[in-house]
Write a structure and sequence with these properties.
Number of domains: 1
GO molecular function: hydrolase activity
CATH class: Alpha Beta
Mean pLDDT: 87
Domain AB hydrolase-1: 57-310
CATH topology: Rossmann fold
InterPro entries: AB_hydrolase_1, AB_hydrolase_fold, AB_hydrolase_sf
Radius of gyration: 18 Å
Number of helices: 11
Order of helices and strands: EEEEEEHEHEHHHHHHEHEHH
Pfam families: Abhydrolase_6 (PF12697)
CATH architecture: 3-Layer(aba) Sandwich
CATH superfamily: Alpha/Beta hydrolase fold, catalytic domain
Strand order of the largest sheet: 3-4-6-5-7-8-9-10
Shape: globular
Helix content: 25-40%
Protein name: Alpha/beta hydrolase
Length: 321
């Protein structure tokens, strides 16, 4: 859900569709474009320490990108062969040809990528919207998922936190355009501070260098002609997914997940309520829970060491693969 980025990165040109400016890539990372019918995905990778490691895929949240995993992936490159995907319309991936930004549409993009690359089964990670997407993938294609790690997954809540309401309002037709017009004079610094205040348990943990790089990325993203459309349609997709019942409901699909699941919740999360941790633990049949009282919505960015350790313990339970 975060548009924040991380310190220690350099600018390089991506191999995907034209962007306003070069996307940023951390030292040691690589970008590549994967062309599928009606869809092009930008994929960020960090070479594993050795060959033969099991594959992993990382899926970001609303308004985020594959860069949201750049603090975590270096901590796991000795145990997985990891890749992080930019969902359609986010990061450096262009919009999908069919304009489908629903949770199902994003899940279908992930499935198509894994099938095309023959990467599955993978250790699948998801944050926020990416957590909902990963849950759906694991439920409908269990053959593609070894384990599931969900950081503040956007699963339906009856009582949504007040601080999350503005994000939900983006789903209302016309609101995104109205907001874009109302905030056209806001600086990238103002926008970035607002996102960090919403997504971090303690925005003060972000270094000055990290903040300046996040501002530059904010300027790049808001300059994309499809930025607000992708945000609005994806927010609408989350709201629509929350209202689905029956076999397509996200909680029902969570109950169908067979993969061992690691849940991570932050005590200061303003977008996904901390109280949902207990419900999620009960829904996923083979789950374990990590709660981080001081973390916000993006624990993998704030406390990557803790998230990495939780995954390593999950991996140990499976014999390291």
């Amino acid at each position: 859900m975060s548009s924040t980025e991380l310190p220690g990165v350099r600018a390089v040109a991506a191999a995907a569709s034209p962007a306003v400016s070069a996307v940023r890539v951390a030292e040691g990372e690589e970008l590549r474009a994967v062309a599928l019918p009606g869809l092009t995905l930008t994929v960020r990778s960090r070479p594993p320490e050795r060959t033969g490691l099991p594959p992993a895929l990382f899926v970001h949240g609303l308004g985020g990108s594959s860069q949201n995993w750049s603090a975590l992936t270096p901590l796991l490159q000795d145990v997985v062969d990891g890749e992080a995907v930019d969902l359609p319309g986010f990061g450096d991936s262009p919009p999908p040809d069919d304009g489908n930004y629903s949770v199902t549409g994003h899940a279908r993009a992930v499935i198509r990528f894994l099938d095309a690359e023959e990467r599955g089964p993978v250790h699948l990670f998801g944050n926020s919207l990416g957590g909902a997407v990963a849950t759906r993938v694991a439920a409908v294609r269990p053959d593609l998922v070894r384990t599931l790690t969900l950081v503040s997954p956007a699963l339906p809540e009856i009582r949504v936190q007040r601080s999350a309401l503005p994000t939900g309002l983006l789903a209302v037709p016309g609101v995104a355009g109205l907001f874009a017009r109302m905030t056209r004079d806001w600086s990238a610094e103002d926008r970035t501070r607002g996102v960090m205040a919403l997504c971090y348990g303690d925005p003060g943990r972000v270094s000055e260098a990290g903040f300046r790089e996040a501002v530059a990325e904010m300027e790049r993203r808001t300059g994309l002609p499809y930025f607000w459309d992708a945000m609005a349609r994806s927010a609408r997709g989350i709201v629509d997914a929350y209202t689905l019942g029956g076999q397509h409901g996200l909680w029902r699909q969570a109950e169908r997940v067979l993969a061992p699941t690691q849940l991570v919740y932050g005590g200061r999360d303003q977008l996904v309520s901390y109280r949902m941790a207990r419900k999620a633990s009960a829904a996923f049949r083979d789950s374990r829970l990590l709660t981080l009282p001081d973390a916000g919505h993006v624990a993998m960015m704030e406390y990557p060491e803790a998230v990495a350790q939780a995954f390593r313990e999950l991996l140990d339970e499976r014999g390291g693969s």
